Amino acid sequence: MTGQLPLRVVVERPPAGVAFRVQRGKWELLEPSASPGGSLSFDFTVRVVLAPGEPPNFLGEFAQGPRSSRFIYVNSGTSAGQHDSNWTRRAKLPLTKISAALVKGVIADPGSVLEARIEGVGRDGGPACATVPLLDGGWVKKESK
To answer: pTM for this structure?
Structure first.
């Protein structure tokens, strides 16, 4: 089975004055789709292939990395196109914990989206970077808004 999987990434409490963008392909950047209550929200779609007995295979311009360890990049500072920033960072949101059952549930419900939330600030007080922990238990099926 192959399908389109709607994803939403929410950056909670990003540091003031620092731009964040989701990376598309090697160089393109996705603007936030919403900024509710001090958070940034990014909505986009990845292709997914489900084969019996195998983990989901995420494809398309937002899915980064090798098949066995795909992830989404959330860039900040100069990596997000903010040329006057003191920061140059990328946060990795792993896709590896997304189950085939969760993918099927979201694809079967056109009013839903698979959402991940991250903290915008890292341990050093700057923008989140490296592989970041996902809040609220990881990727969660939500109603699309």
So the answer is: 0.94
